[in-house]
Amino acid sequence: MKFYKLCIIGGGLAGLSLAYYLVSLGVKDIVIIEKSEVPGGLLITKHIRGYTFDVGGSHIIFSKDKEILNEMLYILNGNYVKHRRNSKILLDGLFIKYPFENGLKDLPPQKRFECLRDVIQAYIDRLLGKVKEPHNFLEWMYYVFGKCITDTYLRPYNEKLWKTDLRTISLEWVGGRVPNPPLEDIMKSAVGLETEGYKHQLIFYYPLRGGIYALINSLISSIKGLNLRCGEEAVRVLHDNNYNIIETSKDVIGCMYVVSTSPLNESAEMFRPILGKMSSNLRLLRAVPLVVVSLGFKGDAPPYHWVYVPTEDIIFHRFAFLSNYSPYNAPKGAVSLITEITFRDPDEATNVSNYSIVNRVIEDLEYIGILKNSRYVEVYDVTRWRNAYVIYDELRSKVLSEVRDTLNKYNIIVHGRFGLWEYLNMDVVFRKSKELASYLALKLK
Ligand SMILES: Cc1cc2nc3c(=O)[nH]c(=O)nc-3n(C[C@H](O)[C@H](O)[C@H](O)COP(=O)(O)OP(=O)(O)OC[C@H]3O[C@@H](n4cnc5c(N)ncnc54)[C@H](O)[C@@H]3O)c2cc1C
Q1: Which domains can be identified in the chain, with CATH numbers?
Q2: Residue 415 CA, closest ligand 1 atom number
Q3: Residue whose CA is at the smallest distance from ligand 1 atom 30
């Protein structure tokens, strides 16, 4: 049996960025086990007849953490473009500026008035203590934004994305992730003055060539002596005396420490030897599955980056013009577009046929005027993801603390978006990798 100091399960961004920081701290003797033939996890890009599609959904590079942002750009080694966000919400045929509360000026006057009136009323009610403190995501929307903004955009959009009762999503999820602008900005936007919200995402970066996978490619080539074993799945983790044993689909490996980025809801069997009965609780963790339908077609695109679609009549909740992220993402005179569709459960996402979902997307794009004619479509792709958005329900925090504590006792650390079971963007994944690398470097050197 080959023995390593550290075995990382998963060669997505979390596993690779952890290896990157560990190697930069001089730690050697690490192996990464990746079940897919290609590393990168959600950051996979497909290239089809001149079109580039980020098939894990629209990914942009941004952060309020300047140090990490600079490190991500450094890794890209000059292969990136800088953008000022131009994103919209499609409502009743109108493209409203995103975030919605900064785009009230784009609404018809009556709606603009109602949204402004309700947000001021909600503000006064909060000041006077006339409303109960919110206990869940849905209550929080009404509490902060009032009835009109919530009923017109926030509630339908989030119900469409989460495919779950928003009352079951806890406030823990809201903090920092949902734009919560000053009242003054909302008033300005209602009278037609330009304001911006969600400002740390206003300027973003994107690879010039290679799609978002360029970040993975650059990361891989920056890790000296990388030992990445693709097409090999970690199946079981056992603890024997002072070390861990990983049974993979091809081998048995020994190691002092294990870092797992494998999705917790799919890790019940893998961790059963360590967690015992507790491991069944992992199956109770809920996430929203996603299907990304990509289309390459001849024609022009409006100058937007991505567009949110809150209404139920259109199948996708968001679409993104990747050819506006980089001109290399589509041939000249053509558009590279991805659409994102969530499902209630993984079976629903698996059972829908490629034929029916692609046709429905094409129909809807024609209906909203983005695709002039279905005959212009040159290529398409359908990619399914079992886990895209972690659901922060009540059960989550209870299951997680028990599981993490037990695993830690055996030098098994969970990491990454689905290992930690947290709504993590790439910058936070990098930050957590950096912190974990500092901790492990002390233990492993
Ligand atoms: C639709 C969508 C849009 C997003 N947009 C943005 C954005 O614009 N900006 C941003 O910063 N972030 C964005 N994110 C978040 C970003 O995708 C994640 O932060 C990041 O990709 C998480 O990387 P990870 O390595 O933790 O997980 P993953 O990408 O899931 O990687 C985990 C890896 O582990 C492997 N694996 C799993 N189980 C095993 C096993 N048992 N054995 C071996 N290998 C295994 C998997 O094959 C996979 O390669 C977005 C996420 C989604 C879903």
Answers
A1: 2-35+231-285+392-444 (3.50.50.60), 41-97+198-211+287-390 (3.90.660.20), 100-196 (no CATH)
A2: 26
A3: 41
